[in-house]
Design a protein that fits this description.
The structure holds two protein chains of two kinds. Chain A is of the alpha/beta class. Chain A is 37% helix and 27% strand. The N and C termini of chain A lie far apart (37 Å). Chain B is elongated. The N and C termini of chain B lie far apart (52 Å). Classes of the chains: A alpha/beta, B mainly alpha.
Chain lengths: 251, 260
C-alpha cells in the first residue's frame, strides 16, 4: 500500500481502522497518511480515541479491523523480530514521559541503545551518544540524576532524548505538552520543531493544545466520533465554518 | 437469586484468573529459553531478592528458634525428654517451620515488592515504553524476577534454618548448659537426607510461586495508582495461599517417597 503527495512518499498509511471496547466504538473507520518529513497533528476531544489510535499504530493495542502500514510493512503481518526492528525506526514520546524510575538518566538513554546491536553494533562506552542526545534537549548536566530529581518539563525533554537516541525516522508524540505550564509547553514545542528540522523526521502529534498545533503542524486531522472528521492545514481548519471544527479552535 | 449471581460471578472471575495465570506461566517457560538472556538483570534481581531479605529472614529465624525452644523445653523436661529437644527442634525447623515461615515472609516482602514495582511501571507506561523501544518487557522484567526468586528463596530458607537452630542452641546453652558441639551433634545425628531433600526441593517451588504471582499481579495492574496497592496486596494474599497448597502437595509426595 503506497500513497504520495507532492512527490513525497507516505511512511504511514492507515485505512478503515476500527477499534472498540465493549459497545464503545472508539475508532470507527479511521484513515490517515503521514508523509516523509511532515508533522501531522491529530486533535480531538478527550476520549475521542487519539491515544488509542497511536497505540494501535505502534502495536501496544490491537485493532479490530483495518490496515496499518508503516514504512511498507503491514503491521498485521510482521513477526516479533520485524516488529522490534521497526520500533527502532518509530520513536514514541509518552504523555507521562515514562522514564524508568529505577535508572539514572544515562541508563535510561543507554537502555534502548544497548538492545539494538543490529542497528548500532556493540556499544562500548555509550556516553558520547547519550551526551549527543542530551545536548539536543539541552540537559547534559542531568546525565547522572535520577528521574525523581527532575521537573516535569525536564522529564519530558529526557524522554524526548531517549526517543531520539535510536535515531528514528518517525516520532509519535502523545500529548507532549499535557500537564506542563505554558512556558515549558512552549519550550517543548520549540524543541520538537527544531528536532524535526534537524533530523527531518516525520511526526504525528496527538494534542488538544491549539497553540502547539498552530506552531508545529504541516497538516491536521480532527478526530471526531472515531473518524477523521476534518483534514487540512491549521489555517484551513481555523477558517472552517463547521460548528464541530469551530468548537476546537474556540477553546 | 442475587447471592447465586454473585457466586457465579466470583467463580467466573476465579476461573478467568486461573486461566490467565496458567497462560502467564506458559509464557514464562516459552521465554525463559529464548535469547537474549538478561543475565545482568537476573543477577541484579538475585541481589535484590537475596540481600534485601537477609536481615528480615535472619531475625525471624533467630526468634523462631528461640521461642520454639523456650516453649517446648518445659514440656520436654516434664516428660524427661530434654535430650531430645535438639532433634525435635531441628526436624521441625528443617522439614516445615523454616521453609514455610521464610516463604511467607518472602511472599510479604518480595512478592508485594514485585507486585508494586511492576504495577507502578505498568500504570506509568514504563512497560509500554520498554516495548516500543524494542525490548521484550516480559523477558526483561518478569523472567528475571521469577528466576531470581526461584533460586534465592531456597538459599534464604537454608540461611533462616541455620539461624533458627543457632537461636535454639542459645536457649539450650543458657538454660541447660549444653555446649555448641553437643547440641549440633544431636542435631546432625537426628537429621538425614529424607528430612533435608524434600523440604529443600519444595522451596524452589515456593520461590517460583512467589515470583510468578507477584509478577502476574504487577504486570497486569489496572485502574491507575489505586490498582498498584491492590496488586501488591493480592500478590501477598494469593502467593500465601499458593504456598500452602504447594506445601500440602509436597508433603504428600514426600510421604510417598520417604515413608517407611
Amino acid at each position: 500500500m503506497t500513497s504520495n503527495i507532492n512527490n513525497k512518499n507516505a511512511v504511514i498509511v492507515i485505512r478503515d481502522l476500527h477499534k472498540r471496547f465493549g459497545n464503545n466504538h472508539v475508532l470507527d473507520g479511521f484513515n490517515m497518511d503521514l508523509y516523509e518529513g511532515e508533522t501531522l497533528v491529530i486533535m480531538g476531544k478527550s476520549g475521542s480515541g487519539k491515544s488509542v489510535m497511536i497505540k494501535c499504530l505502534i502495536g501496544l493495542e490491537s485493532h479490530d479491523s483495518g490496515t496499518i502500514n508503516i514504512m511498507g510493512m503491514d503491521m498485521d503481518k510482521v513477526d516479533e523480530i520485524e516488529l522490534d526492528e521497526l520500533r527502532t525506526e518509530v520513536g514514541f514520546l509518552f504523555q507521562g514521559s515514562a522514564l524508568y524510575d529505577s535508572m539514572t538518566v544515562r541508563e535510561n538513554l543507554e537502555f534502548p541503545l544497548r538492545r539494538h546491536t543490529k542497528k548500532f553494533g556493540e556499544i562500548g562506552d555509550g556516553t558520547p551518544l547519550v551526551m549527543e542526545a542530551l545536548h539536543n534537549v539541552g540537559l547534559e548536566h542531568t546525565i547522572d540524576l535520577m528521574p525523581e530529581e527532575l521537573s516535569g518539563g525536564m522529564k519530558r525533554r529526557i524522554a524526548l532524548a531517549r526517543t531520539l537516541i535510536l535515531k528514528p525516522k518517525i516520532i509519535l508524540y502523545d500529548e507532549p505538552t499535557t500537564g506542563l505550564d505554558p512556558i515549558t509547553s512552549k519550550e517543548i514545542v520549540v524543541l520538537m520543531k527544531s528536532i524535526q528540522e534537524k533530523y527531518k523526521t516525520s511526526s504525528i502529534v496527538i494534542t488538544h493544545d491549539v497553540d502547539c498545533a498552530r506552531f508545529i503542524s504541516n497538516r491536521m486531522i480532527l478526530l471526531v466520533d472515531g473518524i477523521n472528521y476534518a483534514e487540512g492545514t491549521f489555517s484551513e481548519l481555523d477558517a472552517s465554518e463547521d460548528p464541530k471544527v469551530r468548537a476546537f479552535f474556540k477553546s | 437469586m442475587s447471592e447465586n449471581k454473585s457466586n457465579i460471578s466470583w467463580l467466573n472471575s476465579f476461573l478467568i484468573e486461573t486461566g490467565e495465570l496458567a497462560y502467564f506461566t506458559g509464557r514464562f517457560f516459552k521465554e525463559v529459553f529464548r535469547r537474549p538472556f538478561e543475565f545482568k538483570e537476573f543477577l541484579k534481581q538475585c541481589y535484590n531478592v537475596g540481600n534485601k531479605s537477609l536481615l528480615l529472614v535472619g531475625i525471624t529465624g533467630f526468634i523462631i528458634g528461640l521461642v520454639f525452644t523456650l516453649q517446648s523445653r518445659p514440656k520436654m523436661m516434664e516428660l524427661g525428654a530434654e535430650s531430645w529437644l535438639p532433634s525435635m527442634v531441628s526436624i521441625s525447623i528443617i522439614r516445615e517451620i523454616g521453609p514455610i515461615i521464610t516463604a511467607l515472609i518472602c511472599a510479604g516482602k518480595i512478592g508485594s515488592g514485585i507486585g508494586a514495582e511492576l504495577g507502578s511501571m505498568r500504570v506509568t507506561e514504563q512497560i509500554d515504553a520498554m516495548e516500543v523501544s524494542g525490548t521484550n518487557p516480559f523477558k526483561y522484567l518478569v523472567v528475571t524476577r521469577i528466576l531470581a526468586t526461584t533460586f534465592m528463596i531456597p538459599l534464604l530458607v537454608i540461611m533462616g534454618d541455620a539461624i533458627a537452630l543457632f537461636g535454639s542452641f542459645l536457649i539450650e546453652n543458657i538454660k541447660g548448659d549444653v555446649s555448641f558441639t553437643l547440641y549440633f551433634n544431636e542435631v546432625f545425628n537426628s537429621l538425614d537426607f529424607s528430612d533435608f531433600t524434600p523440604s529443600t526441593i519444595k522451596t524452589f517451588f515456593f520461590g517460583f510461586a512467589i515470583g510468578l504471582v507477584g509478577c502476574y499481579k504487577g504486570y497486569y495492574t489496572k485502574h491507575g495508582t489505586a490498582g498498584v496497592g491492590v496488586s501488591a496486596n493480592s500478590a501477598v494474599v494469593e502467593a500465601s495461599i499458593v504456598l500452602f497448597i504447594i506445601d500440602f502437595v509436597a508433603v504428600l509426595i514426600a510421604d510417598i517417597f520417604y515413608s517407611v
